[in-house]
Specification:
23 helices; eight-stranded mixed β-sheet; alpha/beta
Amino acid sequence: MSRLAGVGVSPGVGFGTGYVLAHEIPVPAPGSRHGGDAGTERSRAEDALEQVAADLEERGARAGGEGQQVLNAQAMMARDPGLAEEVAELIAEGRSASRAVYEGFGRYREILVDAGGYLGARVADLDDVRDRVIAVLEGVALPGVPVGAAEPYVLVARDLAPADTALLSPGVVAAFVTEEGGPTSHTAIIARTLGVPAVVACPGAASIPTGTPVLVDGTSGLVRLSPSGEEVDIARKAAAARAVVLAAGTGPGATADGHAVPLLANIGGPGEVDAALEHGAEGVGLYRTEFLFLGRKEAPSPQEQEAAYLEVLRAFPGGQVVVRTLDAGADKPLAFLPPAGEEPNPALGERGSRLFRIHPELMTGQLTALARAASQASARVQVMAPMVATAEEAARFAAACREAGLPSAGVMIEIPSAALRASDLAAEVAFFSIGTNDLAQYAFAADRQVGALTTLQDAWQPALLDLVAMAAAGAARHGRPCGVCGEAAADPVLACVLVGLGVTSLSMAPPSLPAVRAVLARHTQQQCVLAGQAARRAVSPAQARAAAREHLPGLTDLAL
């Protein structure tokens, strides 16, 4: 086995010694019992749960952005009152703290597996929390990333837990390779945020022996084991040549014939502004405000919200800043909001803007804080609602924004019904922003967290491109802009196709901006249109890619 193939999700070439991350916490013996002092044993379990929760929160605070969101959600798992009660009952029956934790988490695990969808995808995160708690109780060191490595290494795993990746930096890790995961998994998103090459859904990756030299191409998805010096040199030279070309591209995003395409950044808060500015973002296309709310026992105050919004707005004087209102529910629960009721499929339940029907005070408070921040900055503030399905919902949100003093209200297009009736929605709001991750998930009935469904999550799926074209056409019919803020915008070749389909702006993780800027600048708007048409005529993602490339010359020296 000298080569493996997976899905490239973060471009670039990385080379280093492979380090295979394996979590091997011993399973407490079924007959493991405590010495008779149930109170002391219960206190040990409670202390271990809290220690792990606090550690996850601390890691999240240091990581910021997407990593903080995932880690805070894990901390909430460790602090779940129902889980603590389950563990206490098992200890009262005589089980040791470690065995009680193992069985308690196991019962919750069965519930998540049976639920499937978003909750089913949380099983890996739940297992990671369980293992960390048992490691604390047993005094065992939890396997993790290498500490004090002399040179960058390639991190290899079946899958990567958020706590393992959130604090990594490009100076520590040369690339990621995982056997599971998909283009929208947390590993892929963190890799793109760090600017680290990554390949996911790579069969056989977990079997790579630790210490094996590994060459990773995050564009093609090819992983070479023990490559020759010549192969490494060729790959590095290609990457260096690409870097030179990318560095030469500066200024606002535009096609070769001057068609403007604003290139914006996806951010999770003020801590990500510097990276956006460093990579030449013209503004913010997606400000994920839920990071202010997640992992808290109570909602942030209006003053705290206003300060966070204002810091971002002031970083882009005169620029565009698109703020997404609270996107919670499903896999992003809020501890201070009790669930509306039992939801067999939370991904299709009360999430996103639907929460505002149940808790209108949340929307009122957030819009008021945004309006106050907007009055103190020169940035062009636009506010959009997630999970909008109908024109009626769009009109209701636009009215709430106007009442709060925010005239530019838009909606996310991430539900197929919104794309199919885009013209109706465009009559009610000022702009669209397409979230390709969720749009693919709902269009193909394929959970975005399940690695086995990676093909259906491929943003090159022609049916998904059809929905993008419908949304853009509906917006254009009313003279409304239509951007893309999903991960599809970070693919430089697909970015040209999106422009050809009528998309007016692109927003992505900041490290992806230079490549998209460079590729757009090499092609005319007409070439993008032809590429888009060709991709839509295809019947598979692979055919769509190949068909589009025929109309987009000049990609070779960019290693795309």
